[in-house]
Amino acid sequence: MSVSVTAYDDLMAFQRETEALAQVMGRLGWDQETVMPRGAAQQRAEEMGALEGVLHRRRTDPRIGDWLAGIDAGALDDVGRAQLRHIRRSYQRATRLPDTLSAELARITSRAQGIWAEARAAGDVAHFLPTLAEVVRLKREEAAALAQGGDLYDALLDDYEPGATAAGLGAMFDRMRPRLVELRERVMGAATPPAALHGTFPAAGQMAVAHQIATHFGYDWRHGRLDHSVHPFTSGSGADVRITTRVDEAEPLGCLYSTLHEVGHGAYEQGIAPDYALSPLGNGVSMGVHESQSRIYENQLGRSRAFCGWLHGRMADTFGDAGAVGADAFYGAVNRVHAGYIRTEADEVHYNLHIMLRFDLERALIAGTLEVADLEEAWNTRFAHDFGVAVDTPAHGVLQDVHWSVGLFGYFPTYTLGNVYAGCLNLALRAAVPTLDADLARGDAGPATAWLRENVQRHGGLYEPAEVIERACGFAPHEGPLLDYLDAKFGALYGV
Ligand code: ZN
Prior knowledge:
About 65% of the residues lie in helices and about 0% in strands. The protein contains 20 helices and three strands.
């Protein structure tokens, strides 16, 4: 055996143990959000802090550098080279950050989250701003250490969406925004908009329908489970991929479509080739590609007229008249466009406008062209322009999202990138599976899931994010298919 092969095997064995520990960390996080006793919070923070220390030491272990230097990449196959690409990128990021900066960021952001929650509850922006200014200062330092002379925002974005650039995303969003604002104005001016569902929908019934939806979309219960949490999420990869949802007895669609969204994330992780488990290729490749799976399940498939017909039948079986008379009215309620302040409650027409607002503001904060002191005014001005209403209270405006308080800068744009990717995949999927609507009308999402598994999910981290979408679609991803889909769908539904 050559020296380089030994180095590769040693590196991969070390990496496998790190990935296993990272899975344990994820399981602790899942437990914290679902079943952990309330009184355990402080001890859990210490447990996770200790494990984080172990993970940090492993990720910055100098032996990784030695192994990487000793490997002849030319002797490896595509899979081996892709593994090295991930390991090298993560090692570089981890070792470029001074330990003192990482510790300072961890300390400030854990405090900032509490202060943000207080400020939001009190509607007091000024209470949060000094701490946010600290977070921004540290994120700029972090970005500078990572960027090594390159663009600061790109360095942060790279953690969530390798290969994407702020300039590229910004140009794409600028092309999308006028069309979305125009569609929003048309739809909101419609003479007879669809009505919302009315009634009471017992929690047990909602969870039963949620289980059916997950099953019909191919979620593997032998390697997963569905639980309750305040904010729905997906946790884990490989043989243990768990999802959560939330229940509101007055509003069942939140539970059902949150479930389907998380089923998309979960199906991606469950669909990755088993050979890649506990290796760098064994996770979804980026936040944008991850969100493409959750969004296509939730929106292009789950909110289609065909699938809504089947789902309306299950709702009627479970809840009687299902709060809407007939499948068409149910489809209208599922896709109802409503003015609102809150990103997480936004419909498909408004959602990306929320993201573009945040992207432009956080990019300016990191570039230093917007001061934290001017953030609220910038938010409110932009919101009034794009949404046609004035923000009424900071909890509905600049204080609504947790992201900035915990230092997540560069994360927001991956939501819209995921929607753009979902639009592209939907176009390719419909061309490849001409029976799609007939299948969905029977509640059969099997052919859709099979196509996504074959063309996207099974690859895990094998290809770069944009590359996996391009290989699946046969064209370079762009915003056109998403905008055309939104125009056609909401134009028809609202008669505008
Ligand atoms: Zn998601």
